[in-house]
Amino acid sequence: MTKTLKTRRQFVSTTMIGLLATPSLLRAQEQEPSAVRRNISSFSADLWQDHFDNLQHGAILCDIDSRAVQYWSEDESVYKLYPSSVPASEELTRRGYTEVIRKVEGPSWRPTPSMKERNPEWPDYWPPGPDNPLGTHALYLSWQYYRVHGTGDTRKIGRQSSNGCIGLYNEHIAELFALAEVGTQVRIF
Question: Start and end of every L,D-TPase catalytic domain (predicted)?
Answer without folding.
Answer: 58-189
